[in-house]
Amino acid sequence: AAGVIQSPRHLIKEKRETATLKCYPIPRHDTVYWYQQGPGQDPQFLISFYEKMQSDKGSIPDRFSAQQFSDYHSELNMSSLELGDSALYFCASSLGGGLGYTFGSGTRLTVV
Amino acid sequence: DAKTTQPPSMDCAEGRAANLPCNHSTISGNEYVYWYRQIHSQGPQYIIHGLKNNETNEMASLIITEDRKSSTLILPHATLRDTAVYYCIVRPLNAGNMLTFGGGTRLMVKP
Q: For the segment B47-85, what is each residue's pLDDT rounded down to a tens digit?
């Protein structure tokens, strides 16, 4: 079965640079979620979109923005990167905003 | 959301049943119990959810006490690949779609 696809798998950026993470949900899923997981921490909710509109917002820094496109894929844009942004970033998708998400394998961002 | 309490860690012998408890004594009537797990550095994986009846799927069984103040996730025949952090999350069905991960149980399945 098709899963949630995230790209890239790994990303290394320098401080103050920008990064864009991409997420392709399971076909026909209309809701996308983004989570951040720092080293040794639990996943933290950042933001979600339902039918291309922002639906929930968590602890997402103002330096980050995200959107969901007409084909339902989503991008997380991160600017003015800081060392503390180094983390695993997970995208998940579901149908109709249900809580039985399917998560992707994540993007590991390292800021140096 | 209701607060949940889980033991920080548990061991289980391979092939035996793993019973993971979760206390949610302040759960309200419209809140569901969800279980997720995260195998090291992989994306969290949805396991099962329930409201008040016991539930079973191909991965696990969920037993919810009659007063709904606690539940147990049962992996009937644990394998080494079930070694993971297991999260019990209580959430209303229609109160937004944010999951709060925290305080899970690190299950170690040993040969």
A: 999 999 899 999 999 999 999 999 999 999 999 999 999
Long-range CB contact pairs, A82-88, < 8 A, 24+: A82/A15, A82/A111, A83/A15, A83/A111, A83/A112, A84/A38, A84/A111, A85/A109, A85/A111, A86/A38, A86/A39, A86/A110, A86/A111, A87/A36, A87/A37, A87/A38, A87/A39, A88/A36, A88/A37, A88/B41
| Closest CA in chain A for residue B46 | A100
A99 with B49: Cβ contact below 8 A: yes
Q: Which 8-state DSSP code applies to residue B5? A: B
Taking any CB pair shorter than 8 Å as contact, residues of chain B touching chain A are 32, 34, 38, 41-46, 49, 87, 91, 93, 96-104
The four Cα atoms A36, A107, A33, B7 give a dihedral, to 10 degrees, of -50
Q: Taking CB atoms and an 8 Å cutoff, what residues of chain B touch A9?
A: none
pLDDT category of residue B1 using cuts at 50, 70 and 90: low
Q: Which residues of B touch A60 (CB under 8 A)?
A: none
Q: Cα–chain-centroid distance for residue B67? A: 17
